[in-house]
Amino acid sequence: MKKTFSLLLLITFAIPMLFGITGCSSSNGASSVSALHFATMSDMSQKIQSAPQTVSDAYRFAVANPEATKNVPCFCGCGAMGHTSNYDCYVQDAPNNGKIIFDEHALGCSICVDITQDVMRMMGEGRAPPQIRQTILNTYSQFGPSNQP
Question: Which of 11, 39, 122, 124 is most buried, with most CB under 10 Å away?
Answer without folding.
Answer: 122
